[in-house]
């Protein structure tokens, strides 16, 4: 069962399902226009730990329609002409075991992105992303792995420009950290894209 309802600057939508064994799953969302320069979005989802869907493609952290309850909230703000700020926060909980976790877990992710589009031919943005979730980790003096929070952070700078109708130039630099001092790395690349006329 799915629904969608519009009222002025509000859009409500959602869907619900029950599998052959009576296990429920649903997601409900809200898109809200906050005037000319801002929009907000919210989505609450719950997928029973035993729910099964053969071809489900949900909005979820583990990309499966099972074993998750979560709340997503986002905000898009037009700061000035072509300058935009996007922020989102997602919190989730897994009530049962899953791959690489031997206990129920929870997690959170948030992202902040500041972007500027210039002359309709290019874009530059900076982005910070943080994700924390429970994973099995081997601890000294313990025979068993413990489920502990692992935090991954990344900082990205991206620049793209259309040189002609067929050619686009992209550059990106990204730094990633796991538990800050535990592990880190960086990526730098350049792309030239060619579109066949």
Order of helices and strands: EEEEEEEEEEE
Shape summary:
globular
Q: Which percent band covers the strand fraction?
A: over 45%
Distance separating the two termini: 43 Å
Give the number of helices: 0
Mean pLDDT: 93
Largest sheet: 11 strands, antiparallel
Which spans of ≥5 residues are poorly predicted at pLDDT below 50?
Answer: none
What's the arrangement of strands in the largest beta sheet? 1-2-3-4-5-6-7-8-9-10-11
How is this structure best described in words?
The chain is mainly β and 197 residues long. Helices cover 0% and strands 66% of the residues. The chain contains no helices and eleven strands. Strands 1-2-3-4-5-6-7-8-9-10-11 form an eleven-stranded antiparallel beta sheet, with no helix packed on it. Strand 1 and strand 2 form a beta hairpin. The protein is globular, with a radius of gyration of 21 Å. The relative contact order is 0.10.
Give a topology summary.
Elements: E1 2-7, E2 10-18, E3 24-33, E4 38-47, E5 68-80, E6 83-94, E7 105-118, E8 122-137, E9 146-162, E10 167-178, E11 183-194
Antiparallel strand pairs: 1-2, 2-3, 3-4, 4-5, 5-6, 6-7, 7-8, 8-9, 9-10, 10-11
Give a short synopsis of this structure.
The chain has no helices and eleven strands.
Keywords:
197 residues; mainly beta
């Amino acid at each position: 069962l799915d629904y969608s309802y519009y009222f002025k600057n509000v859009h409500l939508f959602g869907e619900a399902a029950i599998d052959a064994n009576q296990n429920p799953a649903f997601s409900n969302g809200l898109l809200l226009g906050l005037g000319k320069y801002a929009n907000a979005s919210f989505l609450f989802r719950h997928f029973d730990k035993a729910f099964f869907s053969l071809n489900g493609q949900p909005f979820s952290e583990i990309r499966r329609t099972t074993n998750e309850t979560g709340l997503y909230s986002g905000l898009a703000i037009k700061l000035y002409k072509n300058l935009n700020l996007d922020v989102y926060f997602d919190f989730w909980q897994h009530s049962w075991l899953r791959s690489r976790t031997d206990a129920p877990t929870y997690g959170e992710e948030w992202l902040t992105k500041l972007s500027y589009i210039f002359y309709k031919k290019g874009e530059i943005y900076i982005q910070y992303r943080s994700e924390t979730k429970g994973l099995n980790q081997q601890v000294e003096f313990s025979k068993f792995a413990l489920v502990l929070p692992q935090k991954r952070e990344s900082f990205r700078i991206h620049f793209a420009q259309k040189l002609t109708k067929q050619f686009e130039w992209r550059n990106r630099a990204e730094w990633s950290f796991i538990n800050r001092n535990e592990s880190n790395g960086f990526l730098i690349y350049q792309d030239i894209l060619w579109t066949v006329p």
